[in-house]
Design a protein that fits this description.
Blueprint: E1 8-12, H1 17-27, E2 32-37, H2 40-54, E3 66-70, H3 76-90, E4 95-98, H4 119-143, E5 148-153, H5 166-180, E6 190-197, H6 210-215, H7 222-234, E7 242-246, E8 250-253, H8 257-263, E9 287-293, H9 300-303, E10 304-310, E11 319-328, H10 333-337, E12 355-356, E13 361-368, E14 380-383, E15 392-396, E16 400-402, H11 408-427, E17 435-438, H12 446-455, E18 459-464, H13 467-475, E19 480-483, H14 489-496, E20 501-506, H15 511-518, E21 520-528, H16 549-555, E22 559-562, H17 572-584, H18 603-611, E23 620-622, H19 625-628
Length: 634
């Protein structure tokens, strides 16, 4: 974001110290500023200075170029008023700097019994208020559909221990990890970063023992701190970044790649080698392998083969080269290999041969075209387009989705997770307080559907085949698991749900579809997301007849809705962010099938495993086994 006249910023703790310096620096660029502080006298004095600095940019405006709001940041009501006043005055919020902070006034071992007058207040000001302000800033930016930057003020004491004030150190450490966890908001146009300076010559810094200041090389110059803030505002690549500012080394992003490698852990209980490193000089091979469909058949193994082709370098100006690490296996792989995703009759579909196979994958950006600005080399990214069963694939930069880590769990959230969330909300019109049935619930998409329906406040019923699958579903919070290997689904539904099911998320087809249709309640919605039982018959997928279907749904005002994810591509990025958020909070579990498939040679085995009915969770193929020991949990 270019800092230019006409932008607006809200700064907390703006009356003195760092807050005052930041407010003045922004005003000197022509930015309108709302100054929020508890000190009314200092606040109005600073506001006057800011208006003077701003005057040359906005002569004759009818509203104040700087506004003071008396605000106790530990009082949410005060904060709400500050943000509302800012929006009422300036229309949008471009920059929010959550700067208010205090040191703990009493040594920890001399604090009162419950800490209510000291250390708890320090936590409220330094951490809780930052969380509240960040939340309000995000809401303000979203409400105006305005991209923005939020900078939270951390401290070097949040990176390494500060023994003489452990409460301050703890609060700032919380700010650092809280902010770094918000990187995915970049996809919504909101970049949130944290600045971690060492001591500056302010009222708070003056209380620190001179010996400590001397050991750090003296006070940090305020202009260097401002330089750091401006870098985080203007550098569009920075989101969830932590900038450490010292007098000795200047601006340094933390953790360094070496430091980061120390704490990355494996995405499963398997023993792993050290985390991989990505260099800007990515070593690209002359050629790579991929799976193509060379003949149309619903038997994936017969329809496909592995071919080696030269990498088409250099890539186009708006393209990226993605090194695939993990690819997802889907039931519809066999529909794709039989040509069912192409229009026209089967006789003419052979004209499309050969074509690349695979729907989804995650990996690392290995190269970018000259005009690409949204991603850079080394960025972990996901893709949902044909051709993911490949070591490398070239795609438009518009089709890549930056992700926190290139892990199997991320692959599961793509086709499977997006289908569940978008399908339930759009095709199923899911609300709270209903009964939701999910068939094949222990599969790749079923596992998401049951959890999302439960999180929405519904009673969830699930079908599966096998005790291990039933156990998994119970762990995911399913209210009633029907194991069709030990119970009759029709009998259970008729006996336990006599009024019918409100929403049915159906992926099996055949007899299961008939059963579900008969179990649908008045005003019920049946979402058809697939019919896996019909994909691999002796002669391929044969359409079924449903006589009397119209009469049946008419009688009870029911809806049977088809759902195909491709037609909802405009929702992918936003929905993926929601899934990431739920996963990061621990509210969403992601089950990966325990059977390991390594390399392109194993793709056909993985497809057959999925269709065998023996899989549990998302079936994944590791395209590059050397990376399998290096990737980390999302």
């Amino acid at each position: 974001m270019e800092i230019k006249p006409g932008l607006s910023a809200l700064v907390t703790g703006a009356a003195s110290g760092i807050g005052r310096a930041v407010s003045l620096a922004l005003a000197e660029k022509g930015v309108f500023v709302t100054l929020a502080d508890l000190s009314e006298e200092e606040g109005r004095e600073t506001t006057s200075l800011v208006r003077k600095a701003n005057a040359k940019f906005h002569p004759g405006i009818s509203f104040p170029s700087a506004t003071f709001v008396k605000c106790d940041v530990t009082n949410r009501g005060n904060l709400v008023i500050a943000f509302e006043k800012h929006l009422a005055t300036y229309g949008t919020l471009d920059i929010c700097i959550n700067n208010a902070g205090i040191g703990n006034p009493v040594p920890f071992d001399k604090d009162d019994s419950d800490g209510s007058k000291s250390w708890k207040h320090t936590i409220d000001v330094n951490l809780v208020a930052v969380i509240e302000c960040t939340h309000l800033a995000i809401e303000a930016m979203k409400s105006k559909q305005n991209p923005g930057v939020i900078i939270n003020m951390g401290s070097a004491a949040g990176l390494y221990p500060m023994t003489f004030d452990p409460i301050y150190s703890a609060s700032k450490g919380g700010v650092v990890l809280f902010t770094r966890s918000l990187a995915p908001y970049k996809r919504q146009g909101i970049r949130i970063n944290v600045l971690c300076p060492e001591f500056t010559e302010t009222n708070m810094g003056a209380k620190v023992h001179p010996v400590i200041i001397q050991s750090l090389g003296g006070f940090l110059p305020m202009d260097l701190l401002i330089k750091g803030i401006f870098e985080l505002i203007t550098d569009e690549s920075k989101a969830g970044s932590c900038l450490w500012v010292t007098k000795r080394r200047g601006l340094e992003y933390w953790p360094t790649p070496m430091e980061e490698a120390k704490y990355l852990v494996g995405s499963s209980s398997r023993k792993r080698a050290p985390s991989f490193k990505v260099s800007s000089s990515f070593q690209l091979p002359q050629s790579s392998e991929k799976i193509i469909v060379h003949t149309l058949s619903h038997h994936f193994r017969d329809a496909t083969r592995i071919v080696r082709t030269p990498l088409a370098l250099p890539i186009g100006r708006d393209q990226v080269l993605l090194k695939i690490i993990y690819a997802g296996v889907n039931a519809s792989d066999v529909n794709f290999s039989s040509g069912r995703y192409f229009s026209g009759n089967n006789k003419n579909q052979g004209s499309n041969l050969p074509f690349d196979a695979g729907f989804e994958g995650v990996g690392i950006i290995a190269a970018v075209g000259d005009s690409v600005r949204n991603v850079e080399v080394g960025t972990p990214a996901a893709v949902m387009t044909f051709g993911a069963y490949a070591e490398y694939m070239i795609v438009s930069s518009r089709h890549v989705l930056p992700v926190p880590r290139p892990d199997p769990e991320v692959v599961a959230m793509l086709t499977s997770g997006l289908t569940a969330l978008i399908g339930l909300e759009k095709a199923g019109q899911m609300r709270s307080g209903e009964t939701v049935l999910v068939t094949a619930a222990a599969g790749g998409t079923g596992q998401f559907a049951v959890q999302l329906a439960k999180l929405a406040g519904n009673k969830v019923v699930a079908t599966c085949g096998g005790s291990d699958k039933a156990k998994l579903l119970k762990e995911m919070g399913v209210d009633r698991v029907i194991n069709y290997k030990s119970e009759d689904i029709k009998t259970v539904l008729k006996k336990e749900f006599p009024k019918g099911i409100d929403i049915i998320y159906e992926s099996v087809g055949g007899n299961m579809f008939d059963l579900c249709l008969n179990a649908l309640a008045v005003h019920g919605r049946l979402i058809v997301i697939g019919m896996i039982s019909q994909y691999q018959g002796e002669h391929g997928w044969k359409p079924a007849n449903y006589p009397g279907l119209c009469e049946k749904i008419l009688a009870k005002s029911q809806t049977v809705a088809g759902f195909f994810l491709v037609q909802y591509s405009q929702l992918w990025k936003h929905t993926l962010d929601r899934l990431f958020h739920l996963y990061s909070l621990g509210k969403l579990k992601v089950a990966i099938d325990p059977k390991r498939f390594m390399g392109l040679d194993a793709v056909a085995d993985a497809v057959e495993h999925l269709h065998s009915g023996k899989s549990t969770g998302k079936v994944i193929v590791c395209i590059d086994p050397t990376f399998d020991q290096q990737t980390s949990r999302l």
